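Record passed on underneath.
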Amino acid sequence: MSHKFQLLPAILLAFGLSAHAAQLSTDARAAVPRDVRQLIVIDYREMQNSDTAMQLRDRVMPPNLKEFDDALRKSGLNDNHDVDQLAFALFHPASGGTDDVTTLGIAQGNFPTDDILARFKKNHVKPALVRANKIYPMGKTGMMLCFVDDSTMIFGGMDAIRASLDARDGYAQSLLSNSTLMGAMQSVDSSALWSILDSTGTQNMMKQILGEAGSVTDYDSVKKRLQVSWYGMDFTHGITFDLTLVTGDNFTAATISTLLNAAVVYKKTTGDATEKTALADTGITSSGGQLKIHFGASDDDFATLLKSQLFQSMVR
């Protein structure tokens, strides 16, 4: 049987950064709707200090996140100096279907809000209003922004902005009321880059990791038991990646661990030298109803991996 093993799927959504904690403030957390599928947080200020991180960013940033990055620059902010942390929340819009997901951007930093608002006024840019909140267009990108306080800005489509403001203003529940994801956040938010995923997001991620193996009977029988997951990345010495999945029982964790280890063994027999080295640096363990995946590589080894067929197939 052919298995397409996809290593480190989470970096598809990662920008790349150096080793500083990227924590969200309480105000920023309150602006995230409760039923978020995935939250990704990065240390934006420090990302340019790592050559490895920048190579990763250039190769794997998805087009939709590139649009957010471009829109941020066109908002009047100096992204290299004003923005400290950048987060993306993927959640279900209230008016959408069960498979619809919208993205909200959140930027934290020391923003020159008076200067930016004065520039909007000078250019005759009129805000839309949601209650007392003023929402401005981000140039011609089609996105909008709103300063919820002097150090927190939200941006994205109008539906995402409204959902965020409803949560922040108490008209809808926010992430602060989601005990499962808040617990996951406490386990990982000291990382330079981190992400938390709900049960659906975790199932989708594991499907991506397993590739064709994700359709086998064993996985279908346990995937609904995946409760939550989180991962962190660090670039202090090369790259390290740690992913934890919570299944709630040892059997599910052991079953998925077996599937992953089988995929690794298969790829080790068919991959080239670079791929075999990467897989040798990947550890998969399970205990206490949790599955853990660890990957580490030096800067040089990871730079080579970025050019490999394994990595290219992973990011398609």
User: Anything to note?
Assistant: The first helix runs from residue 26 to 30.
